């Protein structure tokens, strides 16, 4: 578990954010229902505020250790949704090919 967590610097506390990514980008959230570090109600509040697609799984704060299949499943779900959205955006925008309008 220590390999996946890196130390952070105090500078992070004073960093300025002009536009939080959670306000403009799609997100997915895996609520660990037995988390003792971040209470599940707080996780639900944050994920709702961000407009996240939420999945709840029984497990602790180290959910990626106790429930790796659930973690992999939500990552796969997010990747598929983004890929599908990208294909839709491409088909909605015309491009010019040899002077002709063509839909991607």
Characteristic key phrases:
104 residues; two-stranded parallel sheet; two-stranded antiparallel sheet; 17% strand; globular
Give a short summary of the structure.
This protein has a domain at 20-72.
Please, how many helices? 4
**Helical content, roughly?**
40-55%
Task: Please give the order of strands in the largest beta sheet.
Answer: 1-2
Mean pLDDT reading: 85
- As a percent range, the share of strand residues is 15-25%
Which geometry do the CA atoms define? globular
Compute the CA-based radius of gyration: 19 Å
Largest sheet, if any?
2 strands, parallel
What structural class do you assign from the helix and strand content? alpha+beta
| Oligomer class | single chain
Number of beta-strand segments: 4
How do the helices and strands follow one another from N- to C-terminus?
A: HEHEHHEE
Low-confidence stretches: none
